[in-house]
Write a structure and sequence with these properties.
2 domains; Tyrosyl-Transfer RNA Synthetase; 7 strands; 13 helices; 402 residues; Rossmann fold; alpha/beta; globular
């Protein structure tokens, strides 16, 4: 039996993170925004709880091949992905799970020169190896390249772009952030990025999309375009995908080790600010040892406002061990200096990431296996998307038969 649905109306939510989703997601929605589609299904924090989705659900999400995954990516996205796939597989005939590698999206930051192709190819391989290392099982989830699905993502992208209002896209937060007021960075690909993201989701007729707090605006656009397409062509082709909220619990918002006021990010340019899932034990210990904390060195407790650095380290431990914060605070209660405290934190991270490092070392050198995973996933994803696009062409009038 499925667990009770944790379905909330965002406008009535009392959870601060869900209020954030509501405010960000609705901020730039046109007056014709989908009605009745702003519900959220929460991934239970208990890793043993059933997946609260119907058996005919389709879960879809993607990751960009932009380099090595760090601890924030792992705890905030990839480990929840593994949890979703495992819970779905535990139910006979359960939800379909599709995870993609967004290699077309990676082109919005184009690499130049003759080495560009080799660089992107290496990043694509690394992305597949990382997904497998982080627990994604190709027997339980379809793993496919965005570019490997017979051009169907981009075909639907064009269909949706013909219905997408320019004003709506111009208000998208990511467009504002990434162009940074620089006309030289105002490229069409970056501007239209959210429409391709909507196509990525709808080409599989996905019903649920795992998100944290910072992708809600894109999912709201997806719902808007799905409803607009259905209304425009007087059909009921696309479901309006729901948020599968994965932002609850500890470890989902990992902060920078050197500046805990900011989230952990590769764009910081500070190698000591983040832990990669492939870091060696020595690298992890060195980074934790240098992590910013505070002057209180004889007690360690969770206080994000007053002690952001210490709280970030405690949050990481709670997230990796999947235990309540009270348990972590009890474990560190006897520590009386930062050497002992940071040593404890480093030990937890090293051991938690050990299987990930070992699997990555194995998969990253087995290109034949990686290719087989991708070939299998691309074929399965293409079969699903091709049938959906056949229905789209029928509705629009692009059937090939005269």
């Amino acid at each position: 039996m499925l667990a009770p649905r944790c379905t909330l109306r965002l406008s009535r939510s009392t959870h601060p993170a869900l209020r954030t989703i509501a405010s960000r997601g609705m901020a730039s929605t046109p007056s014709t925004s989908p009605s009745g589609t702003d519900s959220v299904v929460c991934l239970p924090e208990d890793p043993h709880a059933p997946l609260p989705l119907p058996a005919d659900a389709t879960v879809f999400s993607m990751i960009q091949p932009t380099g090595t995954v760090h601890l924030g990516n792992y705890l905030g996205a990839l480990r929840p992905w593994q949890s979703i796939q495992d819970r779905a597989a535990a139910v006979a005939g359960g939800p379909r799970v599709i995870y993609g590698i967004a290699d077309l999206h990676a082109l919005t930051v184009p690499k130049r020169g003759r080495a560009a192709a080799a660089t992107l190819a290496a990043q694509r391989r690394e992305a597949v190896a990382t997904l497998l290392a982080c627990g994604i099982d190709p027997e339980r989830a379809t793993v496919a390249f965005q570019s490997g699905v017979a051009g169907l993502h981009t075909e639907l992208f064009w269909q949706l772009s013909c219905l997408a209002p320019m004003g709506y896209l111009n208000r998208m937060t990511q467009w504002k952030d990434k162009r940074g007021g620089d006309p030289a960075r105002e490229r069409l690909g970056l501007f239209a990025y959210p429409v391709l993201m909507a196509a990525d989701i709808l080409v599989y007729r996905a019903t649920h999309v795992p998100v944290g707090d910072d992708q809600s605006q894109h999912l709201e656009l997806t719902r808007y375009l799905a409803e607009r397409f259905n209304a425009w062509y007087d059909c009921d082709l696309f479901p309006l995908p729901q948020t599968l909220y994965c932002g609850g619990g500890h470890g989902k918002k990992v902060r920078s080790l050197t500046d805990p006021q900011r989230k952990m990010s590769k764009s910081s340019g500070d190698a000591m600010s983040l832990v990669y899932v492939t870091d060696s034990p020595e690298q992890i210990r060195a980074k934790v040892r240098k992590a910013r904390t505070d002057s209180i060195s004889d007690s360690f407790y969770f206080d994000p406002e007053g002690r952001p650095g210490v709280s970030n380290l405690l949050d990481i431990v709670a997230g990796l061990q999947e235990v309540p914060m009270a348990t972590v605070e009890r474990d560190v209660a006897g520590l009386r200096d930062y050497g002992a405290f940071k040593g404890y934190v480093a030990d937890v991270i090293v051991e938690a990431l050990r299987p990930v490092r070992e699997r990555y070392a194995r998969y990253s050198t087995d290109t034949q296996y990686l290719q087989s995973v991708v070939d299998q996933g691309n074929a399965a994803a293409t079969e699903i998307a091709a049938e959906n696009m056949r229905r789209v062409r029928d509705v629009v009038g692009l059937t090939q038969s005269m």
